[in-house]
Amino acid sequence: MTGYQSGLLVILCFNVIAAYAVYLPLAAGQLNLGVAGFMAVGAYAAAYLTNEAGWSMAAAIPAGGLGAALLALLVAVPILRTQGIYLALATFALGQVIAAIFLNLEVVGGAAGYTVTDYAGPGAVFGVTAAIVAAVLLLSRTRFALYLTAIKSDPVVTDLMGVNVRAIQVAALTLGALIAGLGGGLYGHHFSFVEAQHFNVALSIYTVLYVLLGGVQTVWGPLVGAAFFTLLPEVLRVGGGWRYVFFALLIIGFMALRPQGLVTAGARWPGLRGLLGRRPGGEARRDAPEALSPEGSQP
Fold first, then answer.
1. Are 125 and 279 in contact (CB under 8 A)?
2. What's the rounded Cα separation, in Å, for the pair 236 and 246?
3. What pTM value is reported for the model?
4. Using CA atoms, how far apart are residues 155 and 157, in angstroms rounded to an integer?
5. Which mean pLDDT values do the consecutive 10-residue runs of the chain (299 residues) have?
6. Contact 181, 38 (CB under 8 A)
7. Among candidates 178, 199, 189, 196, which has minimal Cα distance to 50?
8. CA angle (80, 87, 30) in 5-degree steps
9. Sign of torsion, CA 177 233 277 294?
10. Which residues on neighbouring strands pair with residue 194, listed in sequence order?
11. Measured distance CA(146)–CA(293) in Å, rounded
């Protein structure tokens, strides 16, 4: 494997980790635009522990993830009192506040950034990414995944069925922050440098796009979406300066064909009739919500 190929796969791994950090709360209907802030917490916490406290990477990176999860747990109660666009704005503001704090925190370099002494090679990045994907896959086979889908579909009915909706929402946001923190800590140790400017709102928005394009109905959607956004621009390099035009046209085309995402639960790709919103016989197309399942079936 060449250095270029290895580097591209590393970037894909970080995008996949960030996508799954967004995927878990989004599966419960929570649009989290603050994932970059949680990644920053994990990155700076892990870097500080290895640099100043002498911790090993194997301990510091999980500790950074736990720090991000603890922050999410603390802010979940007030943030989850909001819904819809207000929830998105609240998480967006949280991410901006976190980035601004690290930007002015001199103990970790402030605006100049923070050098990380220990190095995590590509093998460590691949291994952690595989472990996170496997963990989310296993989680998708539990009753917790069914609760997420039920809450997204109708939180009132889910509450009437005896499910603690608020607790499940808090758990989804916290688990997503844990994954983001792990990804941030791994990012800092792989590139040996952390700067607050990297963890900006653009990173959060791009990550949400990975999940929405890939689809939130199955556990494979974030993986496919991250691969699409990471690998396709490299494939289109043969188009020179037009590659961004081709890439944008492909995104528009895919979203027209698959508004539910590229990977959905048991759905088939529509043809021209699907694009026109009609089925044979004049019946209007209707996309019923599916349960969160890796196989694309009802759990």
1. no
2. 8
3. 0.84
4. 6
5. 87 95 90 92 95 92 95 88 84 91 90 92 94 94 90 87 88 94 95 92 90 87 91 81 82 82 62 40 42 44
6. yes
7. 189
8. 75
9. negative
10. 114
11. 8
